[in-house]
Every structure is written in structure tokens, then in C-alpha cells.
């Protein structure tokens, strides 16, 4: 609630500028995923706004999430990517496996092994594969 009762949008903009605040919509957002240790909150077609307050940017996501276990495969979307076998239960997230496979140009098994050795960090797994090849 704003002190002094309702205000018109122009007054709100002026007040926000005086406080060093600005908002900016993010157009054409297809999906936002919020990952916790055990779950993924997937927002399909959300409204996303960037709120900047004195140089600090915050993202506001508006939409209804679908909550799923972390690493669960997303619904199949048409793509030109080659089919990859399903992940092993309790293994690294499929998108991390694909990233390592693509960036390091290795098989699925090598990518999964590198991810386990790097404690699930894709960048570290890629570096580990690329540096051992030399």
C-alpha cells in the first residue's frame, strides 16, 4: 500500500525515478527455471521484469510454475539435436550432460564420468576432458 492513497501511473513513475528505481520488461521470454538442490520450478511463458534500484538489478517473474524433481527431463520439444539416451536416475542433469558432450566432443559415458569427477560442475568437467586430451 502506498501512503497517501492511490496515485496515477505518471506520479508513480516520477516517484520511482526520484528513488533511483526503474523497471524494464524482458520481451519474448520462453521459459525460466529456478533450481534448488532437489527440485526445479519451471515457468513456461512467464512475464519477466527487471527492476533496477540504485544500480542493483532484480528480476521479477510472474507466472504459474511447474515443480518437478531436479534433473527430470523436460517435455520433448522438436529440435534438430540427435537423440541421446535417457539419464541414469540420480545422475547429473541431462542439460549438463549434453553441454559437456557438445563442448568437449565426447560420448555420453565420458561426459557423465567427467561430471561425477568434477562434482557436477559442467565447466570443470569440460576443462578436465579438454586438458587430458593434450
Please give a structural write-up.
- It is a single chain.
- Helices cover 31% and strands 27% of the residues.
- It has 4 helices and 6 strands.
- The strands form 2 sheets. The chain has a 3-stranded antiparallel sheet with strand order 1-4-5. A 3-stranded antiparallel sheet has the order 2-3-6, with no helix packed on it.
- It has 134 residues and is α+β, with helices and mostly antiparallel strands.
- Among the domains are: 24-69, Ubiquitin Ligase Nedd4, Chain: W; 94-132, Helicase, Ruva Protein, domain 3 (Orthogonal Bundle).
- It is elongated and about 65 Å long.
- The model is unreliable at 81-85 (pLDDT under 50).
- Helix 2 crosses helix 3 (108-117), helix 2 runs parallel beside helix 4 and helix 3 crosses helix 4.
- A hairpin with a 2-residue loop joins strand 4 and strand 5.
Instruction: Characterize the overall form.
Output: elongated
Just name the CATH architecture of the domain at 24-69: Single Sheet
What is the mean pLDDT? 81
Instruction: Please tell me how large the radius of gyration is.
Output: 21 Å
Structural class: alpha+beta
With helices defined by DSSP (H or I, 4 residues minimum), what is the helix count? Answer: 4
Uncertain residue segments: 81-85
**CATH class value of the domain at 24-69:** Mainly Beta
| CATH topology-level fold name of the domain at 24-69 | Ubiquitin Ligase Nedd4, Chain: W
Q: Helix content range of the residues, please? A: 25-40%
Spatial arrangement of strands, main beta sheet:
1-4-5
| CATH fourth-tier homologous superfamily of the domain at 24-69 | Nascent polypeptide-associated complex domain
Main β-sheet, in a few words?
3 strands, antiparallel
